[in-house]
Amino acid sequence: MSQTVRSFIGLGSNLGDRREILTRAVRDIPDKHAVSGLYETAPIGGPSQGAFLNMVVEIQTSVSPYDLLTICQQLETSAGRVRKERWGPRTLDVDVLLYGDLELNDPELTIPHPRMNERAFVLFPLADLAPELVPPLWRETVTDQVIVQVGDLLCC
After folding, report:
1. Is residue 108 part of a domain?
2. Which of the residues 42, 47, 124, 129 has an alpha carbon 20 to 30 A from that of 139?
3. pLDDT tens, residue by residue, 55-93
């Protein structure tokens, strides 16, 4: 039997019915353990675009980090994501944030996610699920980013 690894994936959407897109994606995530609250944030970087809904899902998985990346990319494809420009609007963005204690840095996958400790839209929902994993004084590092908790997904 394969050993399971505590992992976290971040999800965001700013096109279409954002809540429904996230609901469908979360339903399709295998090995779910816990789901954070839902947060609304302004986009960071990129062209002018609408606000994002963001969340984090904790999973207990036995798949490899690369297979988990493939699952994330399949969720994006199922939601109709089109990659036109970096940091552009998207129906669904799904990122591997953490995979146990693994540190990985290659062109295909970097774990921990390289900018997660700078992003309120990752740190607030991650703190819902695993406050021990967010850096000390993390709230002070994201004070310039507006974030509002808008509830929970009722599906999961």
Report:
1. yes
2. 47
3. 999 999 999 999 999 999 999 988 887 766 666 678 899
Annotated catalytic residues are 81, 90, 93, 95
> Do residues 13 and 93 make contact, with C-beta atoms less than 8 angstroms apart?
yes
The domain that contains 59 carries what CATH number? 3.30.70.560
Residue 30 within a domain:
yes
Q: Which structural domain range is residue 124 located in?
A: 5-151
Q: CA-CA distances (angstroms) from residue 85 to 7, 9, 51, 54, 126? A: 28, 22, 17, 20, 27
What is the phi/psi pair of residue 40, to 5°? Answer: -105, 135
CA pseudo-torsion sign 85, 103, 147, 69: positive
Structure confidence by residue, pLDDT tens digits, 9-36:
999 999 999 999 999 999 999 899 999 9
When divided into structural domains, the chain yields a total of 1
